[in-house]
Amino acid sequence: MKIGVLGAGSWGTTLAHLLAGVGHQVCLWVYEKDLAERLPARRENDLYLPGVQLAETLSYSNDIGTATADAELLLLVPPSQVLRRVFTAALPYLSPRSLVVSASKGIENDSLQLMSEVLEDVAGTEILQRSAFLSGPSFAREVAAEMPTAVAVAALDDAVAGQVQAAFSSDAFRVYTNNDIVGVELGGALKNVIALAAGVSDGLGFGHNTRAALITRGLAEITRIGLAKGAVQSTFSGLAGMGDLVLTCTGDLSRNRTVGMELGRGRSLDDILSGMQMVAEGVKTTLSARQLAQKLGIDAPIVEQMYQILYQDKSARQAVIDLMQRDLKAE
Ligand SMILES: NC(=O)c1ccc[n+]([C@@H]2O[C@H](COP(=O)([O-])OP(=O)(O)OC[C@H]3O[C@@H](n4cnc5c(N)ncnc54)[C@H](O)[C@@H]3O)[C@@H](O)[C@H]2O)c1
Ligand SMILES: O=P(O)(O)OC[C@H](O)CO
Q1: Mean pLDDT, the chain, whole residue set
Q2: N or C: at which end does the chain have fewer Cβ atoms within 10 angstroms?
Q3: Is 101 helix (H, G, I), strand (E, B) or coil?
C-alpha cells in the first residue's frame, strides 16, 4: 500500500518504520523542516527517536500535500491538540477512497472531542466510514526494537478494521480489531491522566499499594466516563483499557508517568515542561477530562485531584490526603 504518515514524533516515526518494514511504500511528513532535511541521509530521528536506524525505503517530506496525495492509507499521529490543524491541512489532498487511521491519544481542549469527533467535524460524517483508531499498550521505543506488542484498532466498519489490521500487523506487532471507537479512544486518552497520578504517587515515595489503588480506581473512573459517553464496558478490560493503563502507570518509558513523578518530587509544571521536547498528552487531557466528566455528571476524583495539582497549584501530598478522606463508599 501507499501510506502517508502525518507526524514524525516518536510514535509516528516508529509506525512509519514498522509499515515500511512490512513492505508498504511510506512517506513520513515531518513538521520540523530541518529534521525533514536531515532524515534521508541520516536515517535516524535524532529529535524524537534517537538511536533507531530507520527503514531504507522510507521517504520524508516537510510538505503535507506530498505525504497525503496518492496515499491509500493516511495515518495521523500528531499530538492530539494539533490533529485538527494537521488534518484540515491534509484534507484537500486526501483521495475520497483513502483509509484514515488516527493513532493519537487525547481529548481536544474546549471542544472536548475525541479524535474521531474531530475528524467528523472537519470532514463530515462520511469520513468515519473509512476511518480507524489505533490504541493500546505500545511504547514507541519497544515497538521500534521489535519487542512483541499487541494493540487494538477500532472502526465502525468491520472491513475497514480488517484492512487496517492486515496493513499494520507484523511478526512483533499484533493488531486486534474492535468496533468500539469511543471506548478505544477514551481508554487511550484517559489512561494518561491516571499515569500522571501514578507518577505523582511514585514521586512522593509511596509504594505498590498506592499505585495498584490508583490503577484500579482509575479504571473505574475511566469506565464510568466511557459508559456515559456510549462506550462498551468490555473495551476497558482490553488492550486499550486495562492494558494501556497498566503499561503507562508502571512503565519507566512513560512521559506522563515521568511528569507525574517530577510533580510528586516538588518541581513545578512549567519547569518540567520547559525541559521536555516530547508531548505528555495527559497534561492537556486532564483539562478536557475534568470538563467532560462534569458535563456528563460523572464523579471523577482522581481526574479532579490531578487537575488541582496541575492547574491550581495544589500540593501533591494534599491531593492524596483529599482523595483518601472522601466519604467512604461501596466498591
Ligand atoms: N511515543 C509513544 O510511545 C506513543 C505510543 C502510542 C501513542 N502515542 C501518541 O502519539 C501521539 C504523538 O506522540 P509522539 O510520542 O509521537 O510525539 P513526540 O512527543 O515524540 O513528538 C512531538 C511531536 O509533535 C509534533 N509537533 C509539535 N508541534 C506541532 C505543531 N504545531 N504541528 C504539528 N506537529 C507538531 C512534533 O513535530 C513531533 O512530531 C500522541 O497523541 C501520543 O499520545 C505515542
Ligand atoms: O509515554 P506516554 O506516557 O505518552 O505513553 C506512550 C503510550 O501511550 C503508551 O501506550
Answers
A1: 98
A2: C
A3: strand
Position of cell 521489535? 146
pLDDT score of 117: 98
Q: Is the pTM of this model over 0.95?
A: yes
CA distance readout (Å), 271 to 11, 99, 276, 310: 24, 40, 9, 12
pLDDT digits (tens, 9 = 90+) for 42-99: 999 999 999 999 999 999 999 999 999 999 999 999 999 999 999 999 999 999 999 9
Identify whether the C-beta of residue 104 lies closer than 8 Å to the C-beta of residue 115: yes
Quote the distance between the C-alpha of residue 268 and its chain's center.
24
Protein residues with CB under 6 Å of any ligand 2 atom: 105, 137-139, 192, 195, 244, 247-248, 254-256, 281
For residue 152, the SS3 value is strand
DSSP at 243: I
Proximal ligand: closest to the CA of 103: 1
Residue 254 marked ligand-binding: yes
User: How far, in Å, CA of 287 to CA of 78, rounded?
Assistant: 19
Tell me if residue 191 is catalytic.
yes
Residue 139 CA: which ligand is closest?
1
Q: What is the rounded distance in angstroms from the CA atom of residue 215 to the CA atom of residue 217?
A: 6
Length of the chain: 331
Interface predicted TM-score (ipTM): 0.99
Ligand 1 site residues, Cβ closer than 6 angstroms: 7-12, 31-32, 48, 77-80, 82, 86, 103-106, 138-140, 278-279, 281
Question: 260 labelled as ligand-binding?
Answer: no
